[in-house]
């Protein structure tokens, strides 16, 4: 009997010991679990920080490599205003009327180059120095470049000059486009260089004239100019397309702009850009480009979609959906990869 009681006492003692030993073990496990939870939280926080930094670095790389700052229009400006905040230092008007200052600057450059390059003196006199106004010089340059055996230079000159003299919006657009060239192209050394040699500039001004003729009901003549522009310079812009002021078309090889396309002010368009329809629509079927947009080389934008103000489209993109304002998009189909740097927008 005593032996049985002894065994029971020992069993109870062992059970108590076991229970007391489990308590610190459970506490230890809870501490370990809490510590591992903290580690997981820390790991998640670090991972988020790394991901955020990678996104920032990627966006910075996109901004630097795909969207050069000098190609981006940062301000809205009026080349005819002496108070234009976006004016290039080379075009500072010194209180003069903007039109007169620009024309005098172009003539001054032409005189200097004619003296320095005797072989080009006759070309410079025929193109600039032999004219008493910017409108006459531009009409001569365009007619000489687009003339052929059927469209004679003298006939084109008269048509172009009449539009430039009677349609102030056409002349103002031509002046704003010259300033856009000097602002956004480091290779453009002077306004006279854009007027005499830039294919993109000539293409835009030919379109402005053909658009004015189209709106006046001269549809056949407007379409003839569109066709001749495509043949001579490799740029196809339907005369019904609407294009704002201060547009810079760099290189301009293979640019196609459809009938119902609308392009805002201060837009930059690189080579081989297509603003077209999807082929499945009629009527209003082409893109609408807002102000201060940059469209990279070899980009295709299809359909009646809106590209928001300040948007940047990387080279080689296929854009099928609307793009928000100040967004950077890239790819085929294009996806948003970042946003335009706010320090650039601050200049506006």
Explain the overall architecture.
- The strands form three sheets. A six-stranded mixed sheet has the order 3-6-9-12-14-15.
- It has one domain: Hexapeptide repeat proteins (UDP N-Acetylglucosamine Acyltransferase, domain 1).
- Mean pLDDT is 83; it is low at 79-95 and 343-348.
- It has 348 residues and is an alpha/beta fold.
- It has helices spanning 2-66, 98-116, 121-129, 134-146, 153-166, 168-184, 191-197, 199-215, 219-233, 342-345, and strands at residues 236-237, 242-243, 248-249, 256-257, 262-263, 268-269, 274-276, 288-289, 294-295, 300-302, 306-307, 312-313, 318-319, 327-330, 335-339.
- A hairpin with a 4-residue loop joins β14 (327-330) and β15.
- Helices cover 52% and strands 11% of the residues.
- It is elongated.
- Belongs to the transferase hexapeptide repeat family.
Structural class call reads alpha/beta
Percentage of helical residues?
40-55%
Instruction: Estimate what percentage of residues fall within beta strands.
Output: 5-15%
Span of the ends, CA to CA:
102 Å
Strand arrangement, major sheet: 3-6-9-12-14-15
CATH architecture: 3 Solenoid
**Average pLDDT rating:** 83
- What's the total count of β strands? 15
Index terms:
single chain; 348 residues; alpha/beta; UDP N-Acetylglucosamine Acyltransferase, domain 1; six-stranded mixed sheet; five-stranded parallel sheet; 15 strands; 52% helix; 11% strand; elongated; disordered C terminus
